[in-house]
Structure formats: structure tokens, C-alpha cells
Amino acid sequence: MESSLINEGFKKYKILAVIIVGVYFLQTFFLSYGGIGSDSLSYFGIAADLPEPETDLFPLGYPILLQVFHILFNDYFWASKFLNLFFTVFILVFSYSKRFYFRETVLLFMGKTLFFVFTSALSEGPFIFLMYFLFYFFYQIFVGRGNLNKNAVAASLIMIGMFTVRYSGIYIYLAVFLFSLFLSFIRKDRYYSNALLLFLAISGIGIAGYLFFNFQTFGSFTGEQLRGEAGDIAPVYILRDLLGVANTIDPFIGIKPASSSMASIGFQLLILMIDVFVFIYFLRYYRKAKETSLYYFHVLLWIMAGVYAFSLLFSGWFQQIEEMNVRMLAAANFCLFFSFLILYYQYNKDDRWIWRIGCFFLVFLTLYNLKDPGNYLENRNKIKPQMSKFTKKRYLFNNETNVVTVTTYHFPVINKSFKYQHTNSQKGKLKESIAGSLNPKIKWIKKDTVRDKSQVLYTSELSFE
């Protein structure tokens, strides 16, 4: 009888897993920009240049994966779509077949982090994909399954892969290093020391080797000369960054208006109140980790989250990177949410509330993402025939930033309306993302500084008519 109930309980998660795969794959078709942003074009450009990349601003891991899938589909947009589909399906099938926290994994896909990274063409997708398996091999170490050194070697190879996908992987490596110090000097637990030392040694050699390759090939370690120094940071942007870090704890809500108006800051402070409530609730379960055999595993996840979040925060104040948001802090949120879910299911046999909340926010995230709907494939089909005229162009520039499209939202209950300018839905931005995905050899540029204008494809030369 108990076995029957367990199987019945898992059935709804299996059904939901199939729904998730469909939602993740299909929803970007109903966005005007199709999940393709400026960074996506940079990755496409690097992939198109292989095997002779011209820059190390981004590591080569994601572009190599894109190029592999491009061989199959001969299109970088479709390559990114099916790569994300592969990540999603592989994690879910692996989790189910290995019985590695399948219910928890399905709920991870109902949160903001996996929803965001696996529905856009971004390096966070493969980074989080690899991170999931890093968790798996560390889990194997701490539950004592198999050879500790064998699992440590596997984890170290995953760690090297993460660094070749995103340079911020070094913060995960630093977190494991600090965790090993915690075990050795605070807990005085030597049982796992050799395995962790092996992990750090192999990972360290691999990371150093990749940095050496970059220096020999490009003359820099991580394209640091291309990023430039951060400008003066106004107090309002420091506040927005801190609010972004605080939002790391929230598994579902990551709404952050681009505006820095008083209304926007007030809204973010409201989100902060929700974040505090979530933290207090999660803390009830985090405290119970000491009673479990996986205490060290949870501590590792917490250290990873903290080191990653604050390392990014501080580095963002010294170089030109995005402010702290869902994308930047995806790895930290992933760690905290996974830890909570493991503990939640360990102490709760009734999953009705967490299940309902997860389902609600999967619907919410989908609808919120479609708040400014469009037809990406239609837009793409209008631009595609025009690109044959511009094969000799070398650069792509959006010269239509003055053409502004504003979306009006009306709330009938309170009879109020407000207008919002969606960055990725602007006419010039749409043309840029579509043209850049169709021919990544034409490199997009932020400023129109090219002297020979005949080499530049201006978005105004493309038409949706």
C-alpha cells in the first residue's frame, strides 16, 4: 500500500516534468526577441569564428557547445534552443533514473533560476547544467557511495568544465577551498580531506591550464583588458546591487524594473520584505541540517551560494559587468533552493503546499515572461531574406535607439494604467538580435566608431514590413 502511494506521488512529478520540457522549449517562440540578447550574439560570434576565436572576453565552453549543435541544425538560434532542450531533458532523466532527488529536481525547474537560464541563449545554461552534476558527485562523496577519490576526480572535471563556460566558476572553486578549510580547522574532520585535496589539485591545474591557454593565445587571462574599469557608482546602484543579492534567497520572485525611480526602488523594497520572509522560513529548515547525515553537503551549498554572490557583488564594483540580478546570481540561488528542497522533503511527508506553490509560480513565471508577447519566428522570417544583401558587412549596429516602443498595462480592478519600455522588444534591438543570430560573422558593436561605414550593417537598413 505504501509503495503504491509513493508511485502515485511520483506520477504527478513525472507528468509535470513533461509539461516543463514543453513550456521551456515553446515559450520563447511567443517572445518578440526569442530569448536572444546581446550576450547571445557575442557567444554566437565566438562560435562562428571557431576554430580561430578572436577574443577571450567570454570562455570557449559555451561557443563550442553551440558549434556542435550548429553542425546538426545549421542555425545558431535553433542550436541554442536544442542545446537548452538537451540540458533540461538530460537533468530530469538523470535525476529520475539515478533516483537523485527527482521531486526536488522537478521543483527546481519551477523556480526562477532554471526557468531563466534554460529559456535563453546564455552561458548560465551550461553552467547550471554542469553545477547540477557537481552537486551529484559531491553528494556521492558525502553519502559514502563508491570510491571517494573517483567521485572527487569526476567533480574536478565538472569544475574545470564550469570554468571554461563562465569565468565566475572560479568563485565555486574558491568556495570549495574555503569549505575544505572549514572541515579541516573548524570541524577538525579529516575523513574527506584527501578527496577534497584531490579535487582542488586537479581543478586547480585545469583552471590554470585554461588561463595559460588564454594568455598564450589572446595575451590576457580572462579578457580583462576588454572589460574596462567600472565607472563611478552612484549610491542608488549600490542599493540596487544589494537588493539583488538579498533576492538570491527567493526561489520564485525576481522582478527588478530597469528604472531607478522612487517607485521602482519602493517596489524593490517590497520585494525585499518578501525575501526576508522567505529567508526566515528557509532558516527553519537550514537549522535542521545538523541533524542529518548530509550536514556537510548542505554547508558546502551554503558556502558556494555566499562566496559566489558576494564575490560577484564586489567584482562588479571594480569592472564593467551587469548589476546583480537573477541571471548574475543564478548559481547562488540554485544552491540555496536545492538545499531547502532536500531538507523540506526530508521533514515533510505531505507535499501538497510546496507542490501547489511550485505549480502556481511555473504558471506565473510563464505569464510574466510573456507579458509583452510577440511572434519571434514571424519576425525572423521577415528579416532572413534580407540578410543575403549584407554578406560583406563586418559590423552590426543598432541606430534606431530613438525609435521607442512603449507597452501600456491596464489594471481594471484599480482602474490604473502604466507604461513600460521593454528593452529587448524595441524595434532596433529586435532587428539586431535576429540579424546577429542569422549571421554571427557580422559582429554587433555598442558604438558606431567604425570609420568605414560601408562595413556596418545598420538596423535601419532592415525592415519588418
Kindly describe this structure.
With 465 residues, the protein is mainly alpha-helical. The chain has two domains: 370 residues, no CATH class; 79 residues, no CATH class. The protein is 62% helix and 4% strand. It has 18 helices and five strands. It has a three-stranded parallel sheet. A two-stranded antiparallel ribbon has the order 2-3. A hairpin with a 4-residue loop joins β2 and β3. The longest helix is centred in the middle third of the chain and has 26 residues.
Topology:
Layout: H1 2-26, H2 38-49, H3 61-73, H4 76-98, H5 102-108, H6 112-117, H7 124-142, H8 148-165, H9 169-186, H10 193-218, H11 224-227, H12 235-246, H13 262-286, H14 295-316, H15 330-347, H16 352-369, H17 376-383, E1 395-397, E2 407-411, E3 416-420, H18 427-438, E4 443-444, E5 456-458
Helix pairs in contact: 1-4, 2-3, 2-18, 3-4, 4-7, 5-15, 7-8, 8-9, 8-10, 9-10, 9-14, 14-15
Helix content: 55-70%
Q: How is the main sheet built?
A: 3 strands, parallel
Arrangement of strands in the largest sheet = 4-1-5
Which stretches of 5+ consecutive residues score pLDDT under 50? 1-6
* Count of individual domains: 2
Rg from alpha-carbon coordinates: 23 Å
Tally of DSSP β-strands: 5
Number of helices: 18
Task: Give the SSE order as H and E letters.
Answer: HHHHHHHHHHHHHHHHHEEEHEE
Oligomer: single chain
Q: State the end-to-end CA separation.
A: 63 Å
Would you tell me the overall average pLDDT?
Answer: 91
SS-derived structural category = mainly alpha
Strand content bin: under 5%
Looking at the structure, what is the overall shape? Answer: globular
